[in-house]
Amino acid sequence: MKIMTTLGSALLLVALPLAAAAAKPVIETQDDLPRHTYELNIKVVDLYAEENREVLRELADQVQADVEGDLAKYDIRDDNTVQGFYSVLGTIAILEGRWQDYLDYLGKRRELESKDANRLTMGLFGEALATVELAGKGGDAEALQAELTRLVEALPYSTVQDNLKSGKGRSEILTEALVLGNMESTYQPLVDNTGGEISYDVASTLVSVSFTLDSFIPNRAIVGTVYADYIAANDVAKVDIWAAREVVLPSTAKGSPVVLSVWDSGVDTSIPGLASHLWTNQNEIPGNNIDDDKNGFVDDIHGFAYNLKGEKVPDLLRPIEEKFGVNPADLQGHAKGLGDNSSNIDSPEAAALRKYISSLPQEEIPAFLENLSLYGGYAHGTHVSGIALAGNPFAELLVARMTYSHTQMPPKPTIEQAERDGAMFRAAGDYFRDNGVRAVNMSWGGSVRGIESSLEAHNIGDTPEERKALARKLYKIGDEGLREAIGGSPEILFITSAGNSDNDVKFDEFYPSSYEYPNLLTVGAVDIAGDETSFTSLGNVDIYANGFEVESYVPGGDRIPLNGTSMSSPQVLNLAGKLLALAPDLTMAELRQLILDGADDKQLETRTIKLMNPKASLALLEKQLAE
């Protein structure tokens, strides 16, 4: 903290020792948080069996002591982290029957929440449960339903409707088998690899799941009924603000071809709506398995591709049916059903998904979850590309494929793999520059803590501090490569999604959304009405676009809606492509400014955000061209 120099020297001599004594160590990034470890000597799923309740409570007591110690010792400069600590303490309070303590922690969490909808809907079921217990009516289902109804009906529907619809959907698909199967496949391999030593992140999750299993799932029908009744009584379709802002360039417009890239999981280039937009490498002969133009890539006709190991491959879309023996059409139905169920859309796919999950035994949950993740990566780049190209006949798509992991156990982090990833990032930057790309979308990211978690899963590092240091080293290798790709391409606009973790990307050091470059825009997500989504990350967001129920192509050519900042980011790429098509000589600074100057300011309770407005940005360009 900077000390005010207007104070006299004598006063400073007195004040400095007092300030130093009172100051706490400051935590400015997630990586600065202290590490805690715990011993777990039973199977993960056995932790929740009645005969092992004492083991669960002992683990909870250790976690509570560490959380309370960290809150007392450190000045943590991130509200989401502190809020998470209070959430864990609240769960432990419920586990121990300390109902008023839970309500007190809930109040503290709400004070730290910046999103109106999240604050209003936070802990509703827990609040109802605690209130009923304190009134001496524990176990009375009618009293619980009445209290939850009272709380829900007091909410402003226009503000909370998306969260309530998502909560209703969660109550309809969450089963004990789903929760336990997920926990077993995610954490049991880690516990086995480490000999039972687990980090705070794992331990706090295991403790928190007790609330889901003990309290939420037995009462999920009550939650679903209360939410469904409130939604049915109040539901009015939100007004779509985006249709009026949309601009479609006619093919007869005076425009120039513009090369755009979607740096993602690959694209189904056979879809007619995308095939007509493909950039073509004129110096490469298709199908001869030769690097004709000597650029290091074989048969890179419409772009380049890397597999999960960071190796160059020819396929611009991962062949999951051939490689994993799955039917993409079946997985597409599950993915659409999951999204529809979360948005309170009673589609055939949503109904089929609910029925399917309800019948799944615990041992089949891991394969189901991994297949959903596999399809998510498979479809992601195609969906993003459809959004980026819509309404722009001058856009040429250069496909840039990387490959995402889909397994519950993450890939093993190594120096060699980090170096391959860093080389991939640099090569991508070179490729974009060499082939005239003007703007790139990046709906992905990573963090140093994510690497540390993967190291833990594989029991790499003898101590938490050693693991932390290695994670930083691995992170730096990839981070430097990505920074070189972006910073070394000053005439290319890079556009990235903020993330879907409702976190501060700068505190968490999430790349690339935490970066600040003059040729980078970070995009958050709002819904069809321009209301901030519950999931969108914060901390470094330049502009917001629609990321809720956005329809686009998936492999095979069908169109389905998906949610996420992954869907909002390519809408900014879409706008950039249209501006560049009409004015190819725009400098990077001019392009970026047109996007930001055309955006509308929206005042939230705690801050102002910018909503993308293509029509306004294009009008500003038209005015500039006329001058």
Automatic annotation (TrEMBL):
Top-rank taxon: Bacteria
Signal peptide start-end: 1-20
Span of domain Peptidase S8/S53: 256-602
Catalytic residues as annotated in Swiss-Prot or TrEMBL: D264, H380, S566
Entry-linked Pfam families: Peptidase_S8
Biological process terms in GO annotation: proteolysis
Listed GO MF terms: serine-type endopeptidase activity
InterPro entries with a match to the protein in the record: Peptidase_S8/S53_dom, Peptidase_S8/S53_dom_sf, Peptidase_S8_subtilisin-like, Peptidase_S8_subtilisin-rel
UniProtKB keywords: Hydrolase, Protease, Serine protease, Signal
Annotated family: Belongs to the peptidase S8 family.
PANTHER family from the UniProt entry: CEREVISIN-RELATED (PTHR43806:SF11), PEPTIDASE S8 (PTHR43806)
Name this polypeptide is given: Peptidase S8/S53 domain-containing protein
Organism of this sequence: Halioglobus maricola
